[in-house]
Design a protein that fits this description.
This protein is mainly beta and about 325 residues long. It contains 1 helix and 21 strands. The longest helix has 27 residues.
Length: about 325
């Protein structure tokens, strides 16, 4: 038995050493653990979308906060958890003609939670009888840039048999903001500099019936001098005829000839338009797109240029067309 005693003792010693090293490593990790919570979300708003739902929105956290998600509380009770890229949510299943208070907390990768945001309070309207009639679309929409990351959007009131309770703002087919039914303007923040946007507004009533889109408002935010020149193709147009779509735009001033453009149709890349050596247009650019899609097909079109550093620039203004017969 003696020949095996030393190896067993050595094995016990090594196991103890491994445990000690592991404990030391955990202690060292604990010493460097992140215990700093993110800042509280700002700009919290809440708008009743119907008798039983409220739309809650807030401003995105600064990148330095390292936020990985948000928690939405209703009267101190957690009701929704969202990923970091989500800064709005509809809270449903509420009671008509009731008062509610909402707060939001940010959470980082280490599990630290911010203090609650300042609370916002909102009242849901009274429930209506069976209502399946949607409001009319807002007749007009207009927008103007108020800086590289902000746009002021205005619209004229829609009509509804039971009354409009909310206006939803869409960009690229995605709802990005909700305003109250008595409002006719809102400020959109968190946009990108030097970028062309196309905003539409839909009216909504207390039964969540939504109108068609109102007319689009095209707005291009000015470039940010700290981010270099504007890289979006400008004055983008699209004209249709049976079987073809004629595109035209002005090349961005990147300091070099632009020989490649990426074309998006309905928010998806469909082709890269390339011009060979000696055939690169300067100034105004034209391109003919052939199509066999049926008449009545609706497209939204936008494009962006390949920059001298090999990356893609910002998108042009979006154009909407309907293919003819």
């Amino acid at each position: 038995m003696r020949p095996t005693t030393a190896p067993r003792r050595a094995g016990a010693f090594l196991a103890a050493l491994a445990l000690a090293l592991a404990a030391a490593a955990l202690t060292a990790c604990g010493a460097d653990a992140d215990t700093t919570p993110p800042h509280s979300p700002g700009g919290l708003t809440a708008q009743a979308g119907s008798a039983t739902s409220v739309h809650v929105m807030w401003e995105a956290a600064a990148p330095a906060d390292g936020v990985t998600g948000y928690q939405v509380f209703q009267g101190g009770r957690l009701v929704r958890e969202l990923a970091a890229e989500k800064t709005m949510v509809d809270i449903t299943g509420l009671t008509p003609r009731s008062a509610y208070a909402f707060t939001v907390r940010a959470r980082d990768a280490a599990g630290n939670r911010s203090a609650p945001s300042a609370p916002v309070r909102v009242d849901t309207p009274a429930a209506r009888a069976e209502d399946h009639q949607a409001p009319t679309a807002p007749p007009t929409t207009a927008g103007r840039a108020e800086g590289p990351r902000q746009v002021r959007l205005t619209w004229t009131a829609a009509t509804d048999d039971t009354g409009v309770t909310a206006y939803d703002v869409y960009q690229g087919g995605v709802r990005i903001h909700t305003a109250g039914g008595a409002e006719s303007a809102t400020t959109l923040t968190g946009l990108q500099p030097g970028t062309a946007y196309s905003f539409t507004v839909r009216a909504r009533d207390g039964s969540d019936n939504s109108s068609p889109d109102g007319p689009a408002a095209a707005v291009t935010t000015p470039g940010d001098p700290s981010q270099g020149p504007d890289t979006a193709p400008s004055a983008f147009t699209a004209s249709v005829s049976p079987g073809t779509v004629e595109l035209a735009w002005t090349a961005p001033g990147t300091g070099r000839e632009t020989s490649e453009y990426q074309l998006y149709v309905n928010d998806r890349p469909v082709t890269v338009i390339q011009f060979g050596a000696g055939a690169v247009p300067r100034g105004r650019v034209t391109y003919r797109l052939t199509t066999t899609e049926p008449a009545g097909t609706a497209w939204t079109l936008k494009l962006r240029a390949r920059l001298p550093d090999g990356t893609w620039g910002t998108f042009s203004q979006e154009q909407r067309i309907t293919l003819p017969g």
